[in-house]
């Protein structure tokens, strides 16, 4: 089973967003970067697939049970993020660096990923359900289309048998059970698993694992970012009162001032 | 007349989704400026009777792709269906709602059209091309994008665009479009749909959300929130701390790595207001916070704050509302 996991490097969720001097993008000063949280879940699932396939096999056969490869489209700094993935347990990493700076909009990213993945053995491709910076939720679906393989988003459970996978997909008010032929692209939703932390041994061995860097020519973007702005400021919070005594006043405000009840 | 605007009108339980009505209404407002026609698309099994509803909100024409193959949503089948309508109508824009399925389908169709979808937009204008605003970093910033490529693929955030009043006198012109699924589109099959507890209000569609955090102290205590929710027809949400403690299921989580919600009223009980939680709910119209710590950051964004023990305040609130 060869698993490919698509990883995006994103600002930490703690980031207090400040807009850069171009008025169109995030000011990167002081920003810490992380693996997008849903991609961490995708990677964890990839590692579990491999561990399950290799379980009980002798060392040599288990080594041939397949690889987990992480791949990312992004600037040179993304190599650090991919090293963390290797430390978590991925076997190989591939970094696709755009030849010129480009806004990494989903079609640009998916096109570059698809071209690279076509050349790589793959039985299953895992993405996050969305990258937590641009919240686009579309690279996975695009990748499936460009590779002409099936797609299921928002999975919370995955079982693989032969050339098929049975997944649970989150829907409004419940879930669906779907079956797909493999290879397929699946996107990870919270609930699929709890990602592991890199172990000390993992961190040491990550240094020796292969990280391939390739420069790619990005596709033409379809969207032009005109500006970035802050959301409207909420009026300063107001304390109605303390404890149960405040309740009648609260209800009055909700009914008469806010008119929401 | 310019090229039409094609709308994917999502259905659920033999009805147009509320979000689909919002999308048709907005498409109609855009089309009036552009001198274009709104063509609504119904995909499903037994969806034909909904055509007149789509027309009542402003669709001049309704394309129907109906059959057992389309009973449940799968990306492959619905992409093939939507692309058949795109070829037929040559739209200048394809507008969907930014629901789970809407976003999923938008990405897939955008790839077919070799472009990127403007996903989860909160406003839409036209200036030689569609120009949309969309939140990024879970709402910590908003970007404005110009959609250069035609057809533009756009999804609209639910509950942001107003629904028009229906006009039942509008006549409807329908066209049934036969689509035979390709072998490729049949590679994914839905085996079973498991619904959560019946009557559960969905977080993303709810007008009122009552949410609990670590301050709830345990799963059994959520019954006081369920009761409050029952009184005001609200959905129950949770912070990540409550979800990670196993008190609530993952799909209840509100925040940057959970659901982004914008109800008219959000009641946060025993939630401190961490940046990741605020990211998911701070565009709510009104926020109420109940927390025993007067310094909790949630009070900074709450229109109405009550400092106190939620185990006393929530039941009292419930009682007062029942009066
Ligand atoms: C990558 C990442 C992603 C994250 N994504 C999310 C997300 O999507 N959503 C999210 O919510 N969090 C998210 N978090 C977690 C976030 O940082 C906080 O840890 C979390 O929101 C805290 O939840 P809480 O407010 O319920 O708990 P706490 O911060 O522990 O707050 C509990 C509050 O309850 C109050 N309280 C206690 N007892 C009572 C009582 N009897 N009556 C009244 N008040 C009481 C306390 O005063 C306190 O303010 C994320 C974190 C990371 C690192
Ligand atoms: N630059 C990128 N490099 C690799 N994978 C990416 C990149 N951007 C997005 N992805 C993958 O696609 C998923 C969805 O991203 P998005 O459509 O941007 O919300 C992410 O969770 C990643 O798995």
Any overview of this molecule?
Chain A has one domain: HUPs (Rossmann fold, 3-Layer(aba) Sandwich). Chain A contains seven helices and 13 strands. Chain A has helices spanning 37-54, 59-63, 78-88, 106-118, 139-147, 200-206, 247-257; strands at residues 3-6, 9-11, 33-35, 68-73, 92-98, 124-128, 151-161, 164-171, 174-181, 184-188, 211-216, 223-229, 239-242. In chain A, the strands form two sheets. Chain A has a nine-stranded mixed sheet, with helices on both faces. Chain A has a two-stranded antiparallel ribbon with strand order 2-3. In chain A, helix 3 (78-88) crosses helix 6 (200-206). Chain B has 323 residues and is α/β, with parallel strands linked by helices. Chain B has two domains: 2-176, 3-Layer(aba) Sandwich (Rossmann fold), CATH 3.40.50.620; 203-322, Rossmann fold (3-Layer(aba) Sandwich). Helix content of chain B is 28%, strand content 28%. Chain B has helices at 18-34, 51-56, 75-89, 100-112, 222-232, 240-244, 275-281, 298-301, 310-322, and strands at 5-8, 11-12, 15-16, 38-44, 61-66, 93-97, 118-121, 123-126, 130-136, 141-147, 152-156, 173-176, 188-195, 208-212, 235-238, 265-269, 286-291, 304-307. In chain B, helix 3 crosses helix 4 and helix 5 (222-232) packs parallel to helix 9. The N and C termini of chain B lie far apart (56 Å). The chains are: A alpha/beta (261), B alpha/beta (323). Chains A and B meet through helix 4, helix 5, strand 7, strand 8 and strand 9 of A and helix 3, helix 4, strand 7, strand 9 and strand 10 of B. Strand 9 (174-181) of chain A pairs antiparallel with strand 13 of chain B. Flavin-adenine dinucleotide binds at residues 213-215, 239-242, 253-258, 270-272, 274, 276-277, 280, 290-293, 296, 309-311 of chain B.
What percent of residues of chain A are in strands? 25-35%
Intertermini distance of chain B: 56 Å
Mean pLDDT of chain B: 96
Return the CATH class of the largest domain in chain B: Alpha Beta
Query: Any idea what the CATH superfamily of chain A is called?
Result: HUPs
CATH superfamily of the largest domain in chain B: HUPs
How confident overall, as mean pLDDT of chain A?
96
Shape of chain A: globular
Task: Work out the largest interface and the residue count of each chain.
Answer: A-B, 88 and 97 residues
Sheet-strand content of chain B, in percent, reads 25-35%
Range of helix content of chain B: 25-40%
As for the CATH topology of chain A, it is Rossmann fold
* Oligomeric state of shown chains: heterodimer
Structural class of chain A: alpha/beta
